[in-house]
Amino acid sequence: MSQQSRRDFIKTGLLSTLFLGSGLTTKKVYHDVLETGKARNIIFMVSDGMSSGTLAMSDLMLRRRDGKRSNWLRLYEEGKVSRGLMDMASANGIITDSSAASSSWGCGHRVNNGAVNVGPDGKHHKPILPVCRDAGKATGLVTTAEITHATPAGFAVNVESRNMAEKIAGQYLERGIDLLLGGGNRYFDPAQNSQGLDIYEMYLNEGYDIVRDKTELGRRVNSNAPLLGIFSEGHLPYSLDYQHTAELRENIPSLSEMTEIALRKLSKNEDGFILQVEGARIDHAAHGNDAGGLIFDQIEFDNALGVALAYAESRDDTLVIIATDHGNANPGFNSAPDEHFDKIAEFTYTNDWIHSGLNGQSSVSQIRERVEAATRIGISIKEAEAYQQAVKGTYSTIYNKMTSPQAVLGQVIANHTDINWTSTSHTADYVEVASFGPGSEAIDGFVRNTDLFTVMVEAAGVRDYV
């Protein structure tokens, strides 16, 4: 290759990257919605931080442990969905964060990482829930994260930073979101939030029902009032810890239970509804290289998907979109005997639970006991010492991203399960997207994240309210 040709090649590559990150495109890459306005309802399911290996391993676990398919893969096998790959780049990066990702769906524009529906030029773009609200539809957000977290916020608010939790809570109220279920008491409680505001009282004054536990949630399902349900100080617990802790099961609703309640309430609206449901802790488990946390939270997300499909499959007026916002840590089951994978079925607690009971003073024997209590795996003295060094900050490896206690414990568990990781952070993968119902024909092949906003608007027939 000549020097001039090499310069042209590099220039072309740089321009391609610029266009990818800037949100510019040279052609439309989604198909047309065939019947505008036929989707009375929209259910948008988000498995946050789901790499393709996560989807595969959760399906394998269900097939091997329970003898059944996952709902997501069942749709593929039965040919009931349009399926594609999606480019999730943000305005300023090939790799997106959750706020830019959700905003791309929520307003149809790419924004910088960390922003929520606010463009690089400072322009505020109207999100999809207010669009649908103005068209007369009911609106709802359900998540296993704090309700003010990036993904739910991306469908409803405009803030310069995803970290403006109290402002996000205030905008939910201003914009009349009908149903909000998740965690995050610390942002609503005046004794804990940064501004000393009693945000619960603000919601009460606007006629909302406020619930704080599973029992009270069940009692309010038939109420016609808007609903705010906050079930933990921060994020909701991981599904694996939840399943093995009676107090959590008694007081906190699962994602599938919240989804069922949301559909029962929102479907009362004669003009239909839009609901986003997020399995948030899949992403958190991937960040923590936590195989048990990851697989069982993905399975609970699939349970929630089953609830959504049970509602939608009996109708012809509901668009279901199933997506992830980015890959994370790219986990996968490596070449090994099947029984190594099957060990995950015996786990009773997450790596997060293991970390919570250990510190810099923990002995090797205490580390080994804690790991065995959670996983039934007997790790070696050498493995425990590596974790001990990571907690103290003295562990080193060639790849610096894999020296944290979370990464080291993930590698220790991988020695016994052969489920391993590439990092503890988001990846640039093109991600899975599937759709079912009216408008789903438009999501087929290779799509850009911003296309999903257009598809929802056209399918629901709410273009005039954008």
What does this structure look like?
With 466 residues, the protein is an alpha/beta fold. The protein has two domains: 41-331 and 430-465, Alkaline Phosphatase, subunit A (3-Layer(aba) Sandwich), CATH 3.40.720; 348-420. It contains 21 helices and 14 strands. It has helices at residues 3-22, 52-66, 71-77, 98-107, 128-134, 150-153, 165-174, 185-188, 199-205, 214-219, 239-243, 246-251, 255-266, 281-287, 291-312, 338-342, 351-356, 364-375, 381-392, 405-417, 451-460; strands spanning 41-47, 82-87, 138-146, 179-183, 209-211, 227-230, 273-279, 318-323, 327-328, 332-333, 419-420, 426-427, 431-436, 445-448. Strands 5-6-4-3-7-1-8-13-2-14 form a ten-stranded mixed β-sheet, sandwiched between helices. Strands 9-12 form a two-stranded antiparallel ribbon. It has a two-stranded antiparallel ribbon with strand order 10-11. Helix 2 (52-66) crosses helix 15 (291-312). The radius of gyration is 22 Å and the shape is globular. The protein starts with a helix and ends in a 6-residue tail after the last helix.
In the sheet with the most strands, the strands line up as 5-6-4-3-7-1-8-13-2-14
How many helical stretches? Answer: 21
| CATH secondary-structure class of the largest domain | Alpha Beta
| Helical/strand content category | alpha/beta
CATH topology of the largest domain: Alkaline Phosphatase, subunit A
Low-confidence stretches: 1-27
- Which percent range fits the helix content? 40-55%
Number of strands: 14
Major sheet summary line = 10 strands, mixed
Mean pLDDT, all residues: 94
What's the alpha carbon Rg, rounded to whole Å?
22 Å
Principal-axes shape call: globular
Q: Report the β-strand fraction as a percent range.
A: 5-15%
What is the straight-line distance between the termini?
Answer: 50 Å
Task: Supply the number of structural domains.
Answer: 2
What is the CATH architecture assignment of the largest domain? 3-Layer(aba) Sandwich
Instruction: State the CATH superfamily name of the largest domain.
Output: Alkaline Phosphatase, subunit A
